[in-house]
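Exam revision sheet. Question 4 asks you to relate a sequence to its structure. Input first:
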Amino acid sequence: MSRGGESCCEKSALKGLLRITKAKTLDTQGDYQLLTVELSSQMTDCRFLKMNNPSIGVWHVEGVHPTCETVQQAINWRKSGNKEEVWNPEVLT
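Answer key, structure tokens:
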């Protein structure tokens, strides 16, 4: 399958998952969204960072710490485990 076909399937699967889980957007910054998702009655506020990886052109989501309230905090937490230590990702070449 061509890379374009994979991206289309990945994007459709991601959209379906976010629709089924009734994901809600808490914050947006550029191509990033901080989402909250209810996965079960015990897991009612799971936080995920939805992002477009420009280096490889793929959308994906990654779990982040439940105390992240902004996209920037989620990005910071992914890099260092500290949501207050500011980091800005760069496009890889």
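Marking note for examiners. DSSP finds two helices and four strands in the chain.
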